[in-house]
Specification:
The chain has 33 helices and 29 strands. By secondary structure, the chain is of the alpha/beta class. The protein has four domains: 155 residues, no CATH class; 206 residues, P-loop containing nucleotide triphosphate hydrolases (Rossmann fold, 3-Layer(aba) Sandwich); 188 residues, P-loop containing nucleotide triphosphate hydrolases (Rossmann fold, 3-Layer(aba) Sandwich); 110 residues, no CATH class. An eight-stranded mixed sheet has the order 9-10-7-11-12-6-13-14, sandwiched between helices. Strands 22, 23, 24, 25, 26, 27, 28 and 29 form an eight-stranded mixed sheet that branches. A seven-stranded mixed sheet has the order 17-18-16-19-20-15-21, with helices on both faces. The longest helix is centred in the N-terminal third of the chain and has 26 residues. About 5% of the residues have low confidence. Pfam families: Cas3-like_C_2, Cas3_HD.
């Protein structure tokens, strides 16, 4: 037997005796890759299209490179993580210390093979590793090394980010060909090559640079695939530790058998799309009278290659159903295998979950998987993807320790991108386009899905730039996308279409130009179709604008409406304003008549409130339930929540948001009500052609913070005043372009507006630097690869996750639910300006509570609460105030109520 059996690859804690030799783990992962490729017949053709190689050659080549994924574990610094075990396997030797991760050690070894003058056995290895045949003729080993570089980086960097590329210091195997570990790594690679017998990779591109470009793009697919195979291949429920030597061919057959069981258990590939059978199959309730947009989605031409669509229509027009019709047609046409819905907020994701889950078995046959995913807990039971529920340690103290790996693998936020049907916040998709750990795995999942992004207009400048990066990457890997919006400026629609076209390789392609509304835009190949559609029956309406000038005036208006038996909603721009308005109205109408709905509740309380609002004010809400009720809400109510009110008041906000809010005004026809004609009521400062600098900030300070460009609100108010009403959908496009297509700004507002625009440009620049470029390949290229926590999908003030607890019981705030949901349902997100860390006075209790929590980190703050005599729960914490580069610590008092949410006051 060769010396490469003297190396451990997986091991439990010292003394457990669960040791798996390194060559066997390499073959486990290779076997998983072979099994997935055999089961999923769509993968190889897609990889062939991306890489330019023949599918039959890839079938044998990919398992071979996967067998080499842990070459770096031959390195002494990795082996020495378990010195007692190394002495047993290799005998006494001097330890060699190096802080470089084993993925980078393996990559540096391979690069030394490919670029330096190799030893004789390494020369033989290179001849066999780099069997790439280009249509343009043979190349030298250095060129072939450059060609394979992105692929080898993808496989060796299988822990979520590309390996480090710098020169490593002396004393490790990469620097000394005479080291035994280097010879044994070479011997293993040759043995794997002989056993797995990969076919030469025959490229279709005669030009070396074009083939290299294909290798770089396809390396992202291979990186995600290597992560997936390593997860499954590390599951000790199926791959039992093997500590003694055995014939590699015999072990390979065992690994194939184990891989078949492991992949079957994982839930991957148990489902295929059903054939599209028309609108009546998906939505029998609308089959007789689909909306014009839905009819267009059912008939628009589907071309070859990646497809891109933008569906623009009013709130309540059936965009979701139209998107599902179109997505099902794409599944049937073989463009994708699944669907992922990306929503702007957790509340909208929950609402979409309720709408699409019943369609799971209409869209797919077999055993499809479905996941709801956002920053809260996974609340759906159709989780059939079981990746790595138990994973062996690589070593005590190593990055992928079992507790971290098992928790990570059980995290639905990543697995949702593998499920046939996934619903989540847009953040989960945007991470695929950022320099964040495991971005390649997210891309692997997404590229097989129709990416449906709802409420696109809700993206700020930073998110829009990241979304463009995601569309570019998604198209580059062959994916299709559908974007939904009530009101999208033409320039934004062109930016998004351009990004997708560039990703698909169509630089300089035709872009949208139509200003019709409602509109379905389709891009395929290098051609744009823009189909204007009629408004849904009953949708056209003209809303008079009624201006309110003070909070007191709005309170009087809502009080009058409630006492007349109407239901009403006031959409406020800040949580603090919403809380104050709720208290004013509750004092007049009574506590039970007023509901407060915002994002600063513990998740369990927020879901309870959300469900109650949907039940009372949604399509099934009865007149008796709605009568005399008032909802005070923030922006959480304006998107994708199917609710309507007899009376609606909104704080002044940008015109696209205002149109969204108007969609909650008498949204449904209600035969049981005799309602007054709808009118949109807006709380706004007095109009002025030449406003002062404090025109907005003086009367509405918090609105000025939430929407920092006063010129946008000034132009919005100008359109409202000049029109005194607006007709929807007819004037929706003109309204949006008048506000966002213009840069007219009064002189006194220019300083604040200029600051806001400058900040937007800065955010766009930050996004540009953080977005991945597939054409660079799965390589660091000098970029900073961070964890997800430090690669934001949204810019803004730094935040923490606050976990609320009941001090007397030493238990989570919501402890009357399943144990695994208690802490997730007891948490919420706030800025560090409000809460940054626990109070040092609560250190002992916080430590006790943290021992019962699933994750604890610097961005998680536990706050014990105590019940006061007036029914208020209070706690203590520390906030950070002042400039981010030099914040000062401030003791704060936390006030919490399941009715009012969380508030913070200075002083503990």
């Amino acid at each position: 037997m060769s010396g490469f059996f003297d190396y451990w690859g997986k091991a439990g804690a010292e003394g457990e005796g669960r040791v798996h030799l390194l060559p066997f783990h390499g073959f486990d992962v290779a076997a998983v890759g072979a099994e997935i490729l055999d089961r999923d017949t769509a993968l190889l053709p897609r990889m062939a299209h991306l890489s330019g190689f023949r599918a039959e050659d890839l079938r044998s080549a990919i398992p071979f490179v996967l067998a080499l994924h842990d070459l770096g574990k031959f390195a002494e610094p990795f082996q020495d993580l378990m010195p007692d075990l190394v002495r047993e396997l290799q005998g006494p030797r001097a330890a060699r210390v190096c802080a470089v991760h084993h993925s980078s050690l393996g990559y540096q070894l391979w690069r030394s093979w490919a670029t330096l003058r190799p030893a004789p056995d390494e020369a033989q290895l290179l001849c066999q590793l780099h069997q790439v045949e280009l249509a343009g003729g043979a190349r030298g080993h250095r060129d072939l090394g450059d060609l394979m570089q992105p692929w080898m980086a993808a496989v060796l960097g299988h822990h979520g980010k590309p390996p480090e590329e710098g020169t490593l210091g002396p004393g490790i195997l990469q620097a000394h060909p005479a080291y035994r570990s280097r010879r044994d790594a070479t011997a293993f690679a040759l043995a794997a090559r002989k056993l797995l017998a990969p076919a030469p990779l025959r490229g279709s591109e005669p030009d070396f640079e074009k083939q290299l470009q294909r290798m770089r793009r396809s390396s992202w697919w291979l990186a995600g695939f290597a992560i997936l195979c390593d997860w499954i291949g590390s599951d000790t429920d199926f791959f039992q530790p093997q500590r003694t030597e055995m014939d590699l061919a015999e072990y390979w057959q065992r690994a194939r058998t184990s891989a078949a069981r492991a992949v079957e258990h994982s839930g991957l590939g148990r489902s295929t799309p059903r054939a599209y059978a028309g609108v009546e199959h998906l939505f029998p309730q609308i089959a007789a009278s689909p909306s014009p947009l839905q009819g267009a989605a059912a008939t628009i031409e589907i071309g070859d290659g990646p497809q891109f669509y933008v569906l623009e229509d009013l709130t309540g027009s059936g965009k979701t159903e139209a998107a599902l019709i179109l997505a099902h047609r794409l599944l049937d046409a073989g463009r994708s295998d699944g669907i992922f819905f990306a929503l702007p907020t957790m509340a909208t994701a929950n609402a979409m979950h309720r709408r699409v889950e019943p369609l799971l078995n209409k869209l797919f046959k077999g055993e499809p998987s479905y996941l709801l995913t956002h920053s809260g807990p996974r609340l759906t039971c159709k989780d059939r993807i079981a990746l790595g529920q138990r994973s062996a340690d690589d070593a005590a103290g190593e990055e992928e320790a079992a507790a971290t790996a098992s928790a990570w693998l059980a995290d639905g936020r990543k697995k949702a991108l593998l499920a046939e049907l996934g619903v989540g916040t847009i953040d989960q998709a945007l991470l695929a386009a950022l320099q964040s750990k495991h971005a390649a795995f997210r891309l692997l999942g997404l590229h097989r899905h129709v990416l449906v992004v709802d409420e696109v207009h809700a993206c700020d400048v930073y998110m829009l730039r990241v979304l463009c990066g995601l569309l570019r990457a998604h198209a580059g890997l062959g994916g299709s996308a559908i974007l939904l919006s009530a009101t999208l400026p033409l320039e934004q629609r062109r930016q998004l279409a351009r990004a997708f076209a560039e990703g698909a390789g169509a630089h300089g392609a035709e872009l949208p130009t139509s200003e019709e509304y409602p509109l379905l835009t389709a891009w395929s190949g290098d051609r744009v179709q823009e189909r204007a559609v009629a408004a849904r029956n009953g949708a056209p309406r003209t809303l008079p604008i009624v201006f309110r000038r003070s909070v007191a005036e709005v309170v009087a208006r809502l009080t009058e409406a409630a006492r007349a038996g109407r239901c009403a909603c006031w959409v406020r721009n800040s949580v603090a304003d919403a809380v104050e308005a709720r208290d004013l109205l509750a004092a007049i109408l009574g506590e039970d008549a007023v509901t407060l709905f915002h994002a600063r509740f513990a998740l369990g309380d927020r879901l309870r409130i959300e469900d109650a609002v949907l039940a009372r004010f949604g399509t099934g809400g009865e007149a008796a339930q709605r009568c005399g009720r008032v909802v005070i809400a923030t922006q959480v109510i304006e998107q994708s929540l199917d609710v309507d009110f007899d009376v609606l008041v909104s704080d002044l906000c940008p015109i696209d948001r205002l149109i969204q809010r108007a969609g909650r005004l008498q949204r449904h026809a209600r035969a049981d009500l005799d309602r007054d004609p709808p009118a949109l009521e807006v709380l706004a400062p007095p109009w002025s052609e030449d406003p002062s600098a404090g025109w907005l900030s003086a009367p509405f300070q918090r609105t000025a913070v939430v929407y920092p460009d006063p010129a946008v609100l000034w132009r919005t108010l100008r359109e409202l005043k000049n029109r005194q009403q607006f007709a929807l959908p007819g004037e929706a496009r003109a309204l949006v372009e008048a506000v966002f297509g213009s840069d007219e700004t009064p002189a006194a507002l220019m300083p604040r507006s200029g600051q806001a625009v400058g900040k937007q440009l800065s955010q766009a620049s930050v996004a540009q630097g953080a977005v991945l470029c597939l054409d660079l390949g799965y390589l660091r290229q000098g970029m900073d690869w961070s964890s997800e926590a430090h690669t934001p999908t949204r810019l803004g003030e730094p935040t923490v996750t606050v976990r609320l607890a009941r001090a007397e019981a030493a238990a989570p705030w919501l402890d009357g639910v399943a144990r695994h949901l208690q802490w997730p349902l007891s948490q919420l997100s706030v800025t560090r300006r409000l809460v940054a860390r626990p109070s040092p006075d609560e250190a002992d209790l916080v430590a006790q509570l943290e021992r019962t929590q699933p994750f604890v980190g610097d961005d998680i703050v536990t706050v014990p609460l105590r019940l006061q005599g007036d029914g208020t729960w209070t706690g203590r914490a520390v906030a950070e105030r002042g400039p981010p580069e030099n914040p000062r610590e401030v003791p704060v008092q936390i006030l919490y109520s399941p009715v009012r949410g969380l508030s913070v006051i200075q002083g503990a």
